[in-house]
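Team,

Forwarding the record for the chain on the shared tracking sheet. I've put the sequence and predicted structure together so nobody has to dig through attachments.
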Amino acid sequence: MLLWGRLCRPNFASKEYKMRRIFTFITFWLLQTVFAQEPINISLEEVLSKVQESNASIKVSEQEAQMAKYDYRYSNSIFLPQIAVSHTGMATTNPLMAFGSKLNQEILTQADFNPALLNDPDQIENYATKVSVEQPLINLDGFYQRKAAKNSMEAKELQAMRTRNYLNFEAQKAYRQLQLAHRAIIVLQKAYDAANANLNMAQNSYDQGLLQKADLLEVKVRVTEVSDQLKTAKSNVQNASDYLSYLMNEQGNVVYEPSEEIMPENLTETMEGSLENRADVKAMDLVSEAYKANMKADNMTFLPRLNAFASYEMYDDQIFQADAKGYIIGASLSWDVFKGSQRFAKVGKSKTSYEKAKQEYEQYIAKSTMELQRTKRMVADAESRLQTSKLAMEQSEESLRIRTNRFKEGLEKTTDLLGAEATYAEKQLAYYQTIFEYNQAQSLLTFLTKE
């Protein structure tokens, strides 16, 4: 309230000045609110560990791999028997059912052949306990379906592994973005302090009549520009922190501070890698093989199937009793000769799916090869720019030092000093941006060649 009273005090300043003071106060308060939380120091190793443990995409990919594993277990049915147990109770006066029930219960007598009793029997109760077993023997289509399920399971496992590799790469990228954003704050804070120092010198020179108002205003514009850039850099820190929280599957509005400084890394030992051994490429190949196995399975449906069966049955007119017993053992050879052209259409579709999967695999190989070659060139180009940007930063720093000394002695124009100051900040940011690009290119190359 005291500050507000001073801002609104009559005759203190013009209306425009008071509005500017109010705006400055509100802006400062908002910035203090946004960036008041204490930054949490975090290392790259901690980030990678938390991402591998908690990332939602990794968990989803592992669940998909687990689902594929159960699909493969489902195909065990072509080898393993199916066993069922049932107990059925009924009461009937149906002539055929009544005669058959007595026969199963082994209680049939000579009197039961009386035509009157055969045609109009008394009610009879029958309780049957049955244990049945079905054993597949030869189902060629099932063998190939099992092979397709196994290929799909292995492909999902490789895709889950590739997802882990990708999230590891993405986490490194996010951490480097955090490093770059914090470094930008440091650079821009120094530029802001220097701009304010220049503004004080310019104000003193203007007060002494040694500087024109246009030059003073130009210095003030420079201070405002750097201030805006500093605010953007702080927003970038928050954005990078939010993305890291998302990757680590953590909640809350947290600001992270990297425990490691951004600097050039050397990962070039990974430049020679086998593309065919990469997890995602092998997964694509296995998917193609799965389609091929499904195509063969559909072709095998034209052949007969051989299955064995057996049952053990117990009958009585009392529940849960078994005075009469019997069994059945046999085998069945079945052959669906024609099913209304359904199988022809299914075979044609599976063949087309296999051809499509082969084309997608070849296209993926070609695209991956192109990306790999492009990334290798990116690494070489970034390495070349790294030294150049470092020299440019050092040159601009020396130029700024000379012009600042000359400006203090009144030997340098304001525009030249501001230009040198802006150039130095620009070259610093460019240098750290080049480090980021160089490290990121190497990290991408590692990801593209990781087996």
